[in-house]
Amino acid sequence: MASEFSVPAPYDQRGWKLKIRDKERVEPPHVSLLHKTRCWRFGLRERAFLDGDPPKRDVPGRLFDELVARRDEFAEEWNELYPENPVNSG
Amino acid sequence: MPPSKTAKRSAAGRSKIETGSRSAAMRPTRLVYLVYLSSRSFPVTRAAPGFEYRRVRTARALKEEFLAAKGQSIWIAGEPGAIATLMSEQVSTTGDRRLLVLDETEDVTHHLYSAYFRFVVSASASLRFLPVEHLAEVLVSPNREELFIGGAYDEAGDAILLYRGNVEPLVVPASWFTNANSKAKPDLGALAVTDYGQTVRFGEFEASTDSILYEFDSAYRRRAKKRALDNDSSLGASVRRLRLQRGISREDFRSLTAKAIARIERNEVAKPHASTLAIIARTLGVPLDALGTY
Fold first, then answer.
1. Nearest residue of A to residue B204 by CA position?
2. pLDDT for A46-88, tens place per residue?
3. Residue B16: left (phi > 0), alpha (psi -120 to 50), or beta?
4. Does B211 reach chain A within 8 Å, measured CB to CB?
5. pTM (two decimals)
6. Closest-CA residue to B36 (of B21, B18, B24)
7. Could B206 and A2 be called an inter-chain contact, meaning their C-beta atoms sit closer than 8 Å?
8. Looking at this predicted complex, what is its ipTM?
């Protein structure tokens, strides 16, 4: 079952979503921050965004802080869904 | 439907065509909305770089637009009858026109449209589109070809047919949508595209559009690889990514040791032997010359 994580207000009402879906690109481990047609992959090993586009500056600072603070929660979910490539194996 | 305040009448007599924004920086993809014989509105509300937005209201304007379309154009018909005019006239069928019909269309009509448009997607009982507000957002998005707008499950072929925001189809084996570690099992008949085209949902089971395209679209893989900030373009990184994506362990490579695979993945082998690469490619199920693209 896909994991959809809570997003702090007011960003939840503005359409931001945090997900690890049942079928993701397995490497590297990540959680996806979605907003409309854009997606930022937050690397659970790197503790940073994996891609240069979309730009990091378009993510509200509070949401980025949330990603960093809850990294272990995301990693636990990731490891359940993708035990063949756990976060700590890199 | 009354004309909007932005309706313009050109000197050339192109009546009742509304024009949106245009970027001079790149050749625009034209987004043409046909409201002829349609009572429905379409929520393209913002300027989109690289797009012209036109709303066509009359049969004459429709024909003019059809003939004038250069390059890639995406046409949206609120209902099948919106483009019936084209069927009764001799118009050129060359060009890269793509048609999206929001209402259900008879099979024969769908095939007829295919004679005029390079790609045609029309709603049906089994093909579901994004909600129209999300659909409009995807169609003018610069990464529309990397987002899905709708899809259907074909039980006979056991395949999923997905359409991208540029109206091009992609076929994915239904059996690919699985994850033994997930509590959810895909309910293929409940297919829905969500999250502005970024997720394909089968009941409680969700697959990211990114993972689908990465697996089944080599051009997408190349783009994804190129733009990743932390991208490691080495052969070893490709082998590791592909092996993990396939759920294959290092012990599964016949006649190669796990240690040898690990060394290749860490790029500790400067130039792996051709026969070694052939075994790796075969085990991973990819052409040898595509091994480095993953």
1. A1
2. 899 888 789 899 999 999 999 999 999 999 999 999 999 999 8
3. left
4. yes
5. 0.76
6. B18
7. yes
8. 0.95
